[in-house]
Amino acid sequence: MATGTTPEKFDPKFTQHVIDTMGPKTSPRTREIFGSLIKHLHDFAREVELTTDEWLEGVKFVNSIGQISTKQRNEAHRMSDILGLESYGLNLLQKRRRMLLTCSRLVVEINNHHAVQSDNLPTSSAILGPFWSPNAPFRENGDSIIMSPHEGQISIMHGQVTDVVTQKPIANAVVDIWQASSNGKYDFQDPDNQVDNNLRGKFRTDENGYYHYYCLRPTAYSLPTDGPAGQIFKILDRHPMRPAHIHLMVTHDKYHPLVNQIYPDDDPYLETDTVFAVKDDLVVHFDPAKNDGKAELDLEFNINLVPKEDHESASAARL
């Protein structure tokens, strides 16, 4: 009795054929990204044996992300956050920068004949989120970003921006701040109660790298649940809550930009942040304000930035 080979459950050549249809004008990086995307997408469908009905539900779901999005609501960005993709990508970038920073310190020691503190680390990054605005106004150190009525606690936030390698202060760094109001909404989500650029502002560090301004102690809030993200929360039996946080974007021409969020240490959602953005060095403590008639609370947050030139020297040293 003749024996034949067992037929393949799936066509073993199909995925590679799809990848190979990319034309010669496709850039190498595009070919790499889409080749990997197609491979993993096909592997996923084969692994779970995706049915036609399930595939159609997925198509409808992807369509709904675009249908609910507006200039004020970026549902695709939110989906990326709640599935952990943005936080995961930032973690990979931060690990690479810290690895290069080790080489950078060696270069500085060789060039300057002095030891660099090996326990200094760059301040952690975190997700940008969908609520950053390029239109935040510059304000003077000591100004308040509170422009509209609220029910929060006024806080004085201050700190120093320094070079992570040399620990020298960085003058003229731009510290861009934004946060939700005490009702858990950002200004453009809440036009009836907040003026444009409420709880937003950009501050330049002084000659010693210091910044300070008045803000609110942040409030925890729920992500919107009336769209595709809400469906995911329900399907996965997850809560939609973000711990209270203040956003920062710190930039300087000679340093790599830093985007992060800082969180009060007593927030109940630190361990289960629905976008997975909390990191240990971004958890902060609010103290009672002393000798400040404008604020109830005091928050110090110092920032270490990675210099571009040393980062590039470190990259070259690895070649």
Written overview of the protein:
Mean pLDDT is 86; it is low at 104-118 and 311-319. Helices cover 31% and strands 18% of the residues. By secondary structure, the protein is of the alpha/beta class. The strands form three sheets. Strands 1, 4, 10, 11 and 12 form a five-stranded mixed β-sheet that branches. Strands 3-2-7-8-9 form a five-stranded mixed β-sheet, with no helix packed on it. It is built from seven helices and twelve strands. α1 (14-20) packs antiparallel against α2 (28-48) and α5 crosses α7. It is globular and about 85 Å long. The protein has helices at residues 14-20, 28-48, 52-68, 75-82, 85-112, 228-235, 308-317; strands spanning 154-163, 174-178, 200-204, 210-216, 221-222, 241-242, 246-252, 255-264, 283-284, 287-288, 297-300, 303-305. β10 (287-288) and β11 form a beta hairpin.
